[in-house]
Amino acid sequence: MQRPSQINSPGTRKGRPVSRQVLADHVYEELLESLMDGRLEPGATVSIDGTARDLDVSPTPVREALARLEHTGMVRRVALKGYRVAPVFTREDFAELMEARLAIEPVNARLACARLTPERLAQLEQAVTDLKTAPRGPSFAEYRDYLEADERFHRLIAEQTGNQFMVAAYAALGGQVQRFRLFGGVGITDAENAIAEHQAVLDALSTGDPEKAAAAMAEHVRKVRGRAIADAPES
Amino acid sequence: MQRPSQINSPGTRKGRPVSRQVLADHVYEELLESLMDGRLEPGATVSIDGTARDLDVSPTPVREALARLEHTGMVRRVALKGYRVAPVFTREDFAELMEARLAIEPVNARLACARLTPERLAQLEQAVTDLKTAPRGPSFAEYRDYLEADERFHRLIAEQTGNQFMVAAYAALGGQVQRFRLFGGVGITDAENAIAEHQAVLDALSTGDPEKAAAAMAEHVRKVRGRAIADAPES
DNA sequence: CATGTTCAGATCCTATAGGGCTGGTACGGA
DNA sequence: TCCGTACCAGCCCTATAGGATCTGAACATG
Q: Which nucleotides in chain C lie closer than 7 A to a protein CB?
């Protein structure tokens, strides 16, 4: 019972030191980062007590963080055995993911198109710009910003539908998450093509024609699938 | 530290008393039941310590159960304030849910149709049979079995796609969950119609024509939306 | 009467202790 | 050498204690 007083850096006189942090949130994000960076390899066990020691906290917030994480599909829990990092994506998993994206994302594009505002359009343009300017070095870490912009673009479209359930459905695909892991070992070779397709989706949205937007998104997803399957490892 | 010895009713000589239960799982299901039955009204606060006292457990498993529940949309968490039951469905929420179902469920029907086996078909037939025979009394509790069969029918189709992500997307809609609460105050008046439509979906699946199956499912969802909006309260 | 203060209870959050189980290792006997 | 047993460390799971904050009511003061 010594740390709580250290969390809020004292000295801020009043009005919430920006935001009192809950330790479980911090643990959650820390674990998420480890998972996306590949520091936690698929199949590895995630010990509750162990990570508590590593992060220098008690097991209680770790339990809470893992309970939340489980619902994202990143880790799996076995009743009295603990948590394990979810296994790697197989080619079949990837095909299933693309099938699901093909069912959901064009709908999102159509709905988002119908209620597009200049402000929202600007956000999408920013995402595409970031996509173009993000470094694409050889190591995985250097793709981080690129992948983040990619994910942001798709998530923004989901959010711009204004439909909470479509957002939830998109999130269930692990939009933020699985994609990072998917390419963890593969490498990304289709950046140039993907950027052009994102631009095409953006252009289609700008025209205000929902069907065009849906078609552009569908084509993008199909092409991503095609390219990824082409140079996927045997696995 | 006295209860663990009571959980596994001693006397079973060996081989796991069917399954050692984890308290958090029990709390989870208990809370879920309270939420679906309406005992926990929308907007009510769910105190961690309080429910721990009610269920006669410690706060630790309650925290874990609530962390999982949050991801289903049944409860919302505010960082240092606690959990509250999610607010009631508005008419707009309902419209959004139906829009999302319309995007996802016909696809599920199409995919499920393609890989339908006799065994799976039998499961679906069982669900429709249960739907027909379930009691439909005036009180909410008496609709329990009916709603369970309804949900099971749709979930089976999602699972029969063999696509884990479509299952996840369907689950994100709160398939198991939101529907129970949705009608909590409204009452169900469309059982006869809905049963016929489920039968129609089942028939379409039996023909083995994926497009027929998708169309039947789309029509079902649209009609549910139409009927529910017709006799929905102002709210 | 209005307003500020104090105090008690409730609540969230975290740390710690300890029970029960499992898996592996060392050791002793056949 | 091989096998069984005892032991030990690590893990999951739960309970309990205690600090920090918030709420609301009782109370005091202008």
A: 10-21
Closest Cβ opposite residue A173 in set B25, B162, B168 = B168
Task: Compute how many other C-beta atoms are within 10 angstroms of the C-beta atom of residue B122.
Answer: 10
Cβ of B169 within 8 Å of Cβ of A64? The answer is no
CATH number of this structure's domain A17-85: 1.10.10.10
> Would the pLDDT of B188 be above 80?
no
Q: Backbone dihedral region of A40: left (phi > 0), alpha (psi from -120 to 50 degrees) or beta? A: beta
Tell me the fold of B91-230.
Four Helix Bundle (Hemerythrin (Met), subunit A) (1.20.120)
A contact residues 78-137, partner B, Cβ 8 Å cutoff? 79-80, 93, 96-97, 99-101, 103-104, 107, 111
Q: What is the value of ipTM here, to two decimals?
A: 0.86
In a 10 Å sphere around its CB, with 0-12 CB exposed, 13-18 middle and 19+ buried, how is residue A166 labelled?
buried
What pLDDT is recorded for position B191? 83
How close A107 gets to chain B, by Cα (Å)? 7
Are A89 and A183 within 8 A, CB to CB?
no
Residues of chain B with CATH 1.20.120.530: 91-230
CATH numeric code, B4-85: 1.10.10.10
CB B169 within 8 A of CB B104: yes
